[in-house]
Design goal:
The protein has about 400 residues and is an alpha/beta fold. The chain contains 15 helices and 16 strands. It folds into two domains: about 230 residues, Rossmann fold (3-Layer(aba) Sandwich); about 140 residues, Beta Barrel (Barwin-like endoglucanases). A hairpin with a 2-residue loop joins strand 12 and strand 13.
Length: about 400
């Protein structure tokens, strides 16, 4: 999409692709070259996957836990994630989490397929007892705006909010068990003020009833609009910050100072892409699917969102169904090089001939969980069709679409 906008002259232009300026973003600065996109500065221990912006692919997690030697992953902190369902070859990762870790902690409201392996599960409070400021989606908005919502319902005595849970984990990992959680907030505030070159007295001017609120107040004050937490509290329905405006020069931080449409790493991979274009396509390929009432493996345990159209079916075109002798609603067997699963067939012309679609995030049939609604509608895990060997060579990320499969009536 970005390349198309660039080639048609619609990047950083009204009607094309514009970039929002959130209330907690850096204040506008002069255009200047930067460090660029980091790739391959180091590699994973076992398979040598290149890092991308300091991260490694989930496909490497199981082998990094299993393989002996210096640097083996021995402890794991999981924050509201379910990689046993969302990573390729979930059975392998499931076994690694069950028997090869020295310690695991999960911050999760559910005992799910992953958190059931944790030594400690720390459930955060529900949304009704949590404050909310949208850092992520304000950075993808189509109109600049800002809103902060304090927790509508107070916490019970002795219950930690999510920020305190994270702070205590940070202190534990840092060997500072006796320090109060506020020490993490104080350090973050001091560091941010120093990096921004702001006067240290600013720390004393911050408002808020908690450390996270004080940190938010600081980010707003240092942001491009010079707002404060008090202003957001005075406008509970939000503040309109105006339409998006062209701003690419001030945010571009490539080494060249220009838009690098074809980075060297991608250019070097083009011969492989050309060879792939000459290969004969598989007769039937699998693509993923999302539902409006769920996201990944989330929300499957919410009764009001279950059933209806939120079901795990294999969508297949009528022509393919007729050719393969499949009946709508009947159970079919889907197999790939990585494994096989069974799911009901949904014959529909919403997918093209030669393509079948199975939603991801399902497969709630493993023992030891406490997700009764999800277990009643388990579905199947599409990642069981992937063995973790089909990967993008640049990032090591698992290929999740266009997987060659066969589909047959279930015996």
């Amino acid at each position: 999409m970005d390349v198309l906008n660039i080639l048609t002259g619609n990047l950083d232009r009204p009607g094309g692709a514009l970039f929002p300026l959130s209330a907690t973003a850096r204040a506008p600065r002069a255009a200047a070259p930067g460090k660029g996109f980091a790739l391959g500065r180091w590699a994973s221990r076992v398979s040598g996957h290149p890092e991308a912006k300091g991260e490694l692919p989930t496909a490497a997690l199981a082998e990094e836990i299993e393989t002996p030697g210096e640097g083996r992953i021995r402890a794991l902190v999981v924050l509201a994630a379910n990689p046993v369902l969302s990573a390729p070859d979930g059975d392998r990762l499931d076994a690694a989490l069950a028997g090869r870790l020295d310690f695991m902690v999960s911050v999760d409201p559910y005992l799910n397929e992953t958190s059931r392996h944790a030594d400690v599960v720390l459930p955060p409070p529900p949304p009704s007892q949590s404050a909310h400021f949208d850092f992520a989606f304000n950075s993808f908005a189509v109109h600049n705006q800002v809103r902060y919502t304090p927790a509508p319902v107070p916490l019970e005595d002795g219950r930690m909010d999510e920020s305190e849970i994270h702070a205590r984990l940070i202190l534990a990992v840092s060997g500072m068990h006796g320090a109060p959680p506020s020490a993490v907030d104080d350090l973050a505030i001091t560091t941010a003020i120093t990096r921004a070159g702001a006067p240290k007295e600013l720390a004393g001017e911050l408002t808020g009833e908690s450390g996270p609120e004080r940190r938010l107040d600081l980010m707003l004050r240092l942001g491009p609009y010079g707002l404060t937490l008090e202003e957001l509290l005075a406008h509970p329905h939000g503040i309109d910050l105006g339409p998006l405006k062209p701003r690419v020069p001030e945010i571009l931080r490539t080494r060249s100072g220009r838009i690098e449409l074809l980075p060297a790493a991608i250019a070097a991979d083009l011969p492989r892409l050309r060879r792939a274009l000459g290969e004969s396509p598989a007769p039937l390929v699998l693509v993923g699917r999302r539902h409006l009432r769920s996201n990944n493996s989330w929300m499957h345990n919410v009764g009001s969102l279950s059933g209806g159209s939120n079901v795990c079916t294999l969508q297949i075109h009528p022509d393919d169904a007729a050719r393969l002798g499949l009946v709508d609603g009947a159970t079919v067997r889907i197999e790939s090089a990585g494994g096989g699963v069974e799911a009901p067939a949904e014959i529909t012309d919403t997918v093209r001939s030669g393509v079948v679609s199975l939603p991801h995030g399902w497969g709630h049939s493993r023992p030891g969980t406490r997700m009764s609604v999800a277990a009643a509608h388990p579905g199947v895990n599409v990642n069981q069709l992937l063995d973790g060997t089909l990967l993008d060579p640049l990032s090591g990320t698992a290929v999740l679409n266009a997987i060659p499969v066969t589909v047959t009536p279930s015996p």
